[in-house]
Design brief:
10 helices; six-stranded parallel β-sheet; 2 domains; binds NADP nicotinamide-adenine-dinucleotide phosphate; Quinone Oxidoreductase, Chain A, domain 1; alpha/beta; globular; seven-stranded mixed β-sheet
Length: about 325
């Protein structure tokens, strides 16, 4: 099969399209013919990890040679003991990090893993949206964000931020989204009650207090956001922040057991339930993918370059099989 192979760490220039063996599903696994996947910030981080990342991804070279966490496609074959899924089923979700990913024509995923049947009426390219949404949902869920809560989402145009806006709205919270001028309309269209242009005004001087500040892009500071928090307000971040400044705060928060500063890591084993939950939100019209650009598999190195620039809005899709409009219409 054809795949984007990453034999060593480096710039997007190391990503090569090559022929590799097609995987076979083990017991409990399904073989998916991949129609769409993404290049996201996790893939970008895995391509050129720092010292800490290398402990996780492989010390001298990547432990796995095919990346790609988000997947949407059609089940081609099933291994022994697979109960609920069968060949021909349209599925979407995420590939567990232990094995190869979905930037290839085929991938194997455990049936009990983070996959579910595709939301009705959706094309594959609009379904490869789970990873960013999973991080967004983990934070909202941890603090049971809901009606009566006010949340400010900083960096609401990214994969995590654009998901957080929609999921927080679906939970009934009042959402303030902070984005650049070019993303104001996007943030409004996702349901934000109020949008702030960070290039035109100082979001930290709104003169308002929030129950939660969700720093979804790792670009501001806790000190700037602190004055926006109510006395028992929480600050959530999706990475270590500029110069790793959120790390000591996380440690302090953990030692003091006050949950003031948290990185909302998804719960272990929670992926299957999450993808099923996201399917219901998408079918209810409460969640949609924000697709910035689409690249064919052959041009995936360009997709890596674009994602590394940190400018994407929502997701960058890799179309492995061109979406057939007729098939998508029939799926409705
Ligand atoms: N996506 C994932 O699956 C994932 C998983 C785990 C952790 N993370 C981490 O979480 C962070 C966010 O990931 P992501 O994928 O959501 O990011 P992303 O999609 O790459 O975010 C890019 C967006 O952030 C905006 N942005 C850039 N600089 C900004 C600034 N100074 N203030 C506000 N917005 C700014 C950009 O628009 P403008 O430049 O026009 O403002 C762009 O729309 C990253 O640090 C990533 O490593 C991501």
């Amino acid at each position: 099969m054809r795949a984007a192979v990453i034999p060593r760490y480096g710039s997007p220039d190391v990503v090569q399209i090559g022929d590799v063996s097609k995987p076979a599903p083990a017991a409990g696994e399904v073989l998916i013919r991949v129609h769409a996947t993404t290049v996201n910030r996790t893939d970008d981080g895995e391509l050129r990890p720092g010292i800490l990342g290398r402990l996780f991804f492989g010390l001298t070279r990547p432990r796995r040679t095919i990346f790609g966490l988000d997947v949407a496609g059609v089940v081609e074959a099933v291994g022994a003991d697979v109960i609920a899924l069968k060949p021909g089923d349209r599925v979407f979700g995420m590939c567990p990090h232990q094995g190869n990913g979905a930037q290839a024509e085929y991938v194997c995923v455990p049936e009990s893993g983070p996959i579910a049947l595709m939301p009705a009426g959706l094309g594959f390219a609009d379904a490869v949206v789970c990873e960013g949404a999973y991080y967004a949902d983990s934070g909202l869920k941890k603090f049971d964000v809901g009606p009566g809560h006010k949340i400010l989402i900083y960096g609401a145009s990214g994969a995590i931020g654009s998901s957080a806006v929609q999921l927080a709205k679906a939970r009934g919270a009042e959402v303030t989204a902070v984005v650049a001028t070019r993303h104001l309309e996007l943030a409004r269209s996702l349901g934000a009650d109020r949008v702030i242009d960070y290039t035109a005004e100082d979001f930290s001087r709104l003169g308002e207090r929030f129950d939660f500040v969700f720093e979804a892009v790792g670009k501001t500071s806790y000190l700037r956001c602190r004055r926006l928090l109510k006395p028992k307000g929480r600050f959530m971040a999706t990475d270590a922040g500029p110069w790793g400044q959120y790390l000591p705060l996380l440690l302090w928060s953990a030692i003091a057991r006050n949950d003031r500063v948290v990185v909302p890591l998804p719960p272990r084993g929670g992926g299957h339930a999450f993808v099923a939950f996201l399917k219901t939100r998408m079918e209810a019209g409460q969640f949609r993918a924000v697709v910035d650009r689409t690249y064919p598999l052959d041009a995936i190195a360009d997709a890596y370059r674009y994602v590394a620039a940190g400018q994407k809005a929502g997701i960058v899709v890799i179309e492995v099989v061109a979406d057939d409009p007729l098939e998508a219409a029939q799926a409705r």
